[in-house]
Design a protein that fits this description.
Blueprint: H1 9-22, H2 26-45, E1 51-54, E2 59-62, H3 66-75
Antiparallel strand pairs: 1-2
Helix pairs in contact: 2-3
């Protein structure tokens, strides 16, 4: 499938930085991003939160993404 995106300069630069830091091309980055989003939506559908855990501080930070917030309100 061919996909065309229109990005502002900040988003384009963020993608370029991601390519450089991961060594992946855009196709691979989008594939991983899609997998992560599908997993995160599934977690929210099951009533779980998606978060980053700081084990040393015994704390966590919940991922804030509008699409996941919609899933939360529908699951509640």
């Amino acid at each position: 499938m061919r996909l065309t995106l229109e990005l502002d300069e900040a988003a384009a630069e963020a993608l370029s930085k991601l390519e450089r830091s991961t060594g992946m091309n855009l196709s691979r980055i989008f594939s991983y991003a899609l997998s992560l989003m599908l997993w995160a939506v599934g977690q929210r559908t099951d009533g779980r939160i998606v978060a980053s855990v700081d084990e040393s501080q015994h704390s966590y930070r919940e991922l804030e993404v509008v699409a996941l917030e919609r899933k939360r309100s529908r699951a509640a």
